């Protein structure tokens, strides 16, 4: 498989790059600062470009089987980085004729399928704490859903830096109940699985640690 990763130097993105290379996939990593990319490999191509550089991004996605946008906010300040990444990916893919797009969002921004206490007490508090990041992800999802691409939105909960386990709970009809975290390595694992799963096209998958 040939894939392009936006946000390749982030926690999830770098895990996607590492695991994809280990599996023998060809990876194009789109980065702004190549010095922050700590992964190397013969099958790795690094493209240095900002999200507004349409020509470079179109070239970066051309001929690829899947594009994964794993961008995320680094703090609690107002941000549009996930939305900007979604817009940039959709625009570049349309120009290049690509179809398969995966977007990393967050289950915390949504209450679909949540239990009563989580929906009415936990999520309102979390929403106040992370309101800017969540607003960005809601907007990014809207961009992806409005596109004509073969998209899958992946919503993990709180991200941790534990080891890769492969033990991942998944729901496509709402958030996973009773599990409120997942390791970034397992998010990357699921993204690579989902990229090759046509049953997830135009689906939203909430994931969490088993």
How would you summarize the topology of this molecule?
Blueprint: E1 2-6, H1 11-22, E2 26-31, E3 44-48, H2 54-61, E4 66-69, H3 81-96, E5 100-104, H4 116-129, H5 131-146, E6 150-155, E7 158-160, E8 168-171, E9 181-183, H6 184-195, E10 203-209
Helix pairs in contact: 1-6, 2-3, 3-5
Explain how this protein is built.
With 210 residues, the protein is α/β, with parallel strands linked by helices. The protein has a single domain, classed as NAD(P)-binding Rossmann-like Domain (Rossmann fold). Helix content is 37%, strand content 23%. It contains six helices and ten strands; from the N terminus they run E-H-E-E-H-E-H-E-H-H-E-E-E-E-H-E. It has helices spanning 11-22, 54-61, 81-96, 116-129, 131-146, 184-195, and strands spanning 2-6, 26-31, 44-48, 66-69, 100-104, 150-155, 158-160, 168-171, 181-183, 203-209. Strands 3-2-1-4-5-6-10-8 form an eight-stranded mixed beta sheet, with helices on both faces. Strands 7-9 form a two-stranded parallel sheet. Helix 3 links the parallel strand 4 (66-69) and strand 5. It is globular and about 45 Å long. The two termini are 28 Å apart. The model has no long low-confidence stretch (mean pLDDT 97).
